Amino acid sequence: MITPERLFGQRIGRVIHSWIDKINEINRKYAEPKIQMSGGVKFALLILRLYLIFLVLLLAYKFYTMLR
Amino acid sequence: MDFGSTFFYKYRRFVKALKIYLILAGPGLIVMLADNDAGGITTYTVTGAKFGYGLIWFLLILLPVAYVVQEMTVRLGAVTKRGHAEAIFDAFGSFWGWFSFLDLALVNWLTLVTEFIGMTAALLIFHIPPLITIIVVSIIMMIMVLQGRYWTWEKIAILFAAVNLIYIPAAFLVHPSVGDVLAQGLVPHFPGGFNGELFFFLMANIGTTIAPWMIFFQQSAVVDKGMKEKDIPWGQMDTLIGSVFTVIVAIFCVVVTGTVLYGVPVESAAQAAAMMIGTNPWLGTCIAIGLFDAGFLGAICISLASSWAFGEVFGWAHSLNFKIREAPWFYACYLFALITAGIVILLPNAPLVLITLFVQVIAVTLLPAALVFLILLLNNEEIMGKYKNTIAQNIAGIVIVVSIIILSTLYGITTLFPNLLS
């Protein structure tokens, strides 16, 4: 199994491991949104997701046209 | 009570209120004047050169826009005692938290590079090489934060913010016709008709008025300053005074270039300063100092906004009141951002123009999310209690936020596809 220790050596591997643990801890801590998910909040977050997908597609298109 | 006693009583009350304000003033003033950063000053300079005084009325509209958005961060910070990054993680979960945090870190770093571009370009006019500028600026910025007190940092930052007002005496140096400024500037109209180019400039001016880092910075600064619910009115006043100053500086900047460079093709504030220094050395010097200061103010706020966000998310000690030993990661983040941004400037053939354009696009991905989260948090009674948005605040907030989202998105798209509006 590929571990950070094997890839980068013991010292750097331990640092990377501690970072991964920290990120996992943050993900666990904030796993559930604490704000009450009313209809308005759900709708706002949905619009935000669609907006970001639109922007990502736009950036991808720009990248594609630049490569062409 | 006779007149003398009434006057004395009111005078004492005023002095007392002023003293309290001076203690609590800071985050609003600093964030608003730092809003006129290197990018902002460049936008105003080019706007003045392109449209003369014709868009001053539009800058006045930006005053309530800036105030309404930033005022919400004061209430949110004072009530929750949390920065915006932590508030997003806590309320909306890790997906939106990571998205906002990583986007903020990227856009802040890119903006920091643009601030260094502004500072080095300004001091190059005085024949100071970029390497010296970057080293000296980085040292000053480190000294500012390492003294171990938020209060001291804030007062030094206010001093630098005051230098931003240099555009006011600069405007008097060019002797503009007050009648022309009022007649052309205060009557809403579109100079040369409404076209793609004008629309781009309107969007650019909005884009410089509200930036994602401002929301994160002011909320974290309110928390670090230790403002409480009872201080909210003072924080609001601070933000209002700051927004008035930011618009005044923007107007005077437009007046300067609108008077002396109207019709001259100008691409940056540094170029304008170099042009002016040839004809009027005092004026050119003022503009160059103003540009340097704008970049410096932006840099100190942006790098701090990132460090605060890192501290909030990773749970590290993150206050200017801590010594370096007590908050090593907080200061390491600050130093890392400074050094890497400085190195990019010094790299030969670094894609600086691309970075400047890219900032606008990346900012557009974060700004709507940060603003929507702000409105949602401010409407949550559980979080805000009696400080939640009123109906009037919501109407103003939502109208402004939706307008900013639409215009900043169009700005980002036209940056990506410049021929879209032509």
Please specify the SSE layout and strand pairing.
The complex is a heterodimer of chains A (68) and B (422).
Chain A: H1 4-8, H2 10-29, H3 39-67
Chain B: H1 3-24, H2 27-35, H3 38-51, H4 56-80, H5 84-124, H6 130-146, H7 150-163, H8 167-173, H9 178-185, H10 196-209, H11 212-225, H12 232-260, H13 269-279, H14 281-314, H15 328-346, H16 352-378, H17 381-384, H18 391-416
Helix pairs in contact in B: 2-7, 2-11, 2-12, 2-14, 3-10, 3-12, 3-14, 4-10, 4-11, 4-12, 4-16, 5-6, 5-11, 5-14, 5-15, 5-16, 6-15, 7-14, 8-12, 8-14, 10-18, 11-14, 13-14, 14-15, 16-18
The biggest beta sheet of chain A reads:
none
Biggest β-sheet description of chain B: none
Number of helices of chain B: 18
CA-atom Rg of chain B in angstroms: 21 Å
Q: Count the beta strands of chain A.
A: 0
Task: Report strand % of chain A.
Answer: under 5%
Please work out how many helical segments of chain A DSSP would assign.
3
Calculate the mean pLDDT score of chain A and round it.
Answer: 83
Mean pLDDT of chain B equals 88
Overall structural class of chain B, as computed from helix and strand content, comes to mainly alpha
Separation of termini of chain A? 40 Å
Following the backbone from N to C, one meets helices and strands of chain A in this order, namely: HHH
From the helix content, strand content and strand pairing of chain A, which structural class follows? mainly alpha
Please mark out the parts of chain A with pLDDT under 50 across 5 or more consecutive residues, or reply none.
none
Distance between the termini of chain B: 69 Å
Please give the radius of gyration of chain A in angstroms: 20 Å
The helix content of chain B, as a percent range, equals over 70%
Helix content of chain A: over 70%
Question: Largest interface here, residues on each chain?
Answer: A-B, 22 and 30 residues
What does the overall shape of chain B look like? Answer: globular
